[in-house]
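Instructor's aside before we start: the two examples that follow are unrelated to each other. I chose them only because their records fit on one page, so don't look for a connection. First example below.
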Amino acid sequence: MKAIRRITVTSFGAAETVTGSCHLIEADDVKILVDCGMFQGHDERLNYEPLGFEPSEIDYLVLTHAHIDHIGRVPFLVKKGFSGRIITTPPTRSIAKIMLLDAAKVMLEDYKIHYRKARRRGKEHEVPPPLYDELDVYDAMELFGAGLPYDEPFKLSEGITLTLKNASHILGSAYAVFDFETVEGRKRVVFSGDLGMEDGLILEPLDYLEDEVDALFVESTYGNRNHKPLEDSIVEFREAVVESFDDGGNILIPTFSLERAQEMLYLLNTMYREGELPKSKVFLDSPLAIAATRIFVQFPDYMKPEIRKMMAEGENPFMFPYVSFTQSVEESKAINNVESGAIILAGSGMCTGGRIRHHLKHNLWRPETSVIFVGYQARGTLGRIIIDGAEHVKIYGEEIAVRARIYTIGGFSSHADQRQLLKWISAFKSIDNLYLIHGEEEVMQVFKDKIREELDYEPQIVKRGEPVSILY
């Protein structure tokens, strides 16, 4: 067997920023890409810049999970010439399809809106077209394998083995462990992807790797803070639901389609089974969340034991007699005829678009309404404006009074916090080189200092486009 002589890693995304995950491993003549995500928020413009490498030269694409900032540019990569094999877990393969089709639809809708406005100004040539369309998504899906289960070593090529471990971030999420047979012996390189908490609501707990590692690339999204305990948040959520029904109105829960929607359904189901949930009509009003929920029930082995037991006994953890899935626009509009006793879960999670905005328009001005925020609200979003205490907001050009009772419950994050990240890192027997990715620069600096102080490692903050040598 020919031993590998050179290994480098270059990050073309999620370097000194959170989104756009894209890391290129070069091991002699083998090229492996870890994630190919979309840049979001203030980095969105980077989606239209050159990738930084030649897609046709990539042999393998390994996807850690199905959030758009980790998979969002995969169809674009294929469109530009990638024809290698895409490797990920079975749930991620299924979720990726619905997420990418939704992304293609949203990009086309946004393009039409911006093009129409630009045309009136005579500047339609300045509007970039969508990165890809639905046909490109189907082309990309042809390159996915059947799926690689957790803890099953897979030989990529001579001297390179990949193992996916449970990251417990969202269904099917993984961190990637690469073992290289080199002229200096075995070299192990680990990419964390996004890590979750070990005490989540639905998923099997996070795996720890008690081994030596030559290079660890670890996310640091919440490297500067700790979350409220989950148990406290569950109690707070239950109390908010019961209190809100006493007011006689509806409850709106802005919900992220993947993971958070399923967690809220599971919590409401638990309340129903324990006799705590008042009689109500629970609407999951999001086609994407509905599709994701149907995928969740296909993979019981990725769930916690109590949920697996429910499913083995024929129960659906996300369904109970009060729940309705509203797929069509007509069904969604009909919800607004319900004046009381409704719990409406709808996207988008930060109220930047989607059906939740229509429900806010019809309910936010009513004092008997409650809005329960269960996810992070970025600065500048409608959700953030509401929780910051605005008395009036504009929705679809109409000024709406904010008279509803507002709850903010912050302990449901699917991201590992600083405490959890430190615990995961500390499980390794030794780490020769520690690199920080997936975080804002100021957050990573805080996390770097904390790692140095508590774990006695000297982390490096990865810079976009600058190669890191593992073996040279």
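Example two begins here.
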Amino acid sequence: MNRMFWSFLVIIVFSHSSIAQSISSLKWKNRILILMDSKGNHSIRNKQLSTFNELEEEIRDRDLVILCYDGNSLLNRDLKPTTYKITNKIDLDFQGVILIGKDGGIKLKRPFLVKPKIIFETIDSMPMRKEEMRKSGNN
């Protein structure tokens, strides 16, 4: 009986850890914008999130994934839980936006509210993005 319990526990632990994935799994594929809201200031986070509502083409063109951190977990833009976990060296108490480049480095860190134009200009100034624009003829 004891052996069966431990086997069951190991299965649960390993199946849970295989479901969760680090945001670093997006490295070299996506840029990540995390709206950090660990103190529960949902109104300002939601206001920041709403600034992106009409910008789907710009978001997609820049390979941008927008996530929200609520103090416990990462949520998608619909504020539904994701399987992503923060493993980077990010100040979890920060209130604002953190932009992570495709290389995994923090490119912008500012308190709420940040205009999407500033975020897009920051992305567009990155060497990798400039190369993407050059290749697609959008420079």
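The first strand starts at residue 21 and ends at 22.
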